[in-house]
Automatic annotation (TrEMBL):
<keyword id="KW-0448">Lipopolysaccharide biosynthesis</keyword>
<keyword id="KW-1003">Cell membrane</keyword>
<comment type="pathway">
    <text>Bacterial outer membrane biogenesis; lipopolysaccharide biosynthesis.</text>
</comment>
<keyword id="KW-0808">Transferase</keyword>
<dbReference type="GO" id="GO:0036104">
    <property type="term" value="P:Kdo2-lipid A biosynthetic process"/>
</dbReference>
<dbReference type="Pfam" id="PF03279">
    <property type="entry name" value="Lip_A_acyltrans"/>
</dbReference>
<dbReference type="InterPro" id="IPR004960">
    <property type="entry name" value="LipA_acyltrans"/>
</dbReference>
<feature type="transmembrane region" description="Helical">
    <location>
        <begin position="16"/>
        <end position="37"/>
    </location>
</feature>
<comment type="similarity">
    <text>Belongs to the LpxL/LpxM/LpxP family.</text>
</comment>
<keyword id="KW-0997">Cell inner membrane</keyword>
<keyword id="KW-0472">Membrane</keyword>
<comment type="pathway">
    <text>Glycolipid biosynthesis; KDO(2)-lipid A biosynthesis; KDO(2)-lipid A from CMP-3-deoxy-D-manno-octulosonate and lipid IV(A): step 3/4.</text>
</comment>
<protein>
    <recommendedName>
        <fullName>Lipid A biosynthesis acyltransferase</fullName>
        <ecNumber>2.3.1.241</ecNumber>
    </recommendedName>
</protein>
<dbReference type="GO" id="GO:0009245">
    <property type="term" value="P:lipid A biosynthetic process"/>
</dbReference>
<keyword id="KW-0812">Transmembrane</keyword>
<dbReference type="GO" id="GO:0008913">
    <property type="term" value="F:Kdo2-lipid IVA acyltransferase activity"/>
</dbReference>
<dbReference type="GO" id="GO:0009103">
    <property type="term" value="P:lipopolysaccharide biosynthetic process"/>
</dbReference>
Amino acid sequence: MTHLPKFSVALLHPRYWLLWPGIGLLWLVVQLPYPLIYRLGTALGRLAMRLMTRRAKIAYRNLELCFPEKSEQERHQLIKQNFESVGMGLMETGMAWFWPARRIARWTDSIGVEHIRAVQAQKRGILLIGIHFLTLEMGARMFGMNEPGIGVYRPNDNPVIDWLQTWGRLRSNKDMIDRKDLKGMVRALKKGDVIWYAPDHDYGPASSVFVTFFAVEQAATTSGTWMLAKMSKACIVPFVPRRKPDGKGYELIILPPECDPPLDDPQTTALWMNHIVEKCILMAPEQYMWMHRRFKSRPPGVPSRYE
């Protein structure tokens, strides 16, 4: 487990001096009124789309693979909205880490909190499915304000960023746990804790099975969901942190729990989990992290989908 980190003077080493003004600028920007932050964030995203051409191509390719029924015009429109969401995602990271709880609560509608209470009444742990929306950091903060949990994360190689993200994420949550610490996750779930877990990215073939995701057959999907659910007997609870249009705030949508998931084998569980992830993505497709190479891992001898 990673508890609230102590600030070290080593973080002020000259090699990190360029980082601190950027962090300070982000802090200043998120002190602005939220409607203005929204306009700045979406404008930044439109600029990013012009500069991040490789990522834009990856996002477009993912949309081609997942939604072959969409027209080229529909995909380009979705890419534009997606990059506006990318810009807002940076702003929301600052908001999640620097805003006081009362300000976040003012802009948030929480829906479905009773599902968490129902699972807790059964004295069971909660495997909280928090997929990679661009509102991810805000989602973790909003959820933690309702029910503090434990976040699964990959420690950042830069100690300043690692300190800052840990500090920010623990403002409304209990602990952080390394994504490699499977035993620690199981222990926490058996104690009745909430573990935030993201099963939607491609984490490599070694820890994955190949099952269908949207229109893509043989998509590498983590087998971790199967292992965690089988070993801990936790309930699985998906949630969606959805940004409202036109700078009107956020919805934290907690979906009904799945306390008896199919656990016959890793493939069955992964396919079932992908269907849940698909349902969540379709609630706000423009806010999902499409620029990630979701389908980079392929079965042996099968060509890349990104060439």
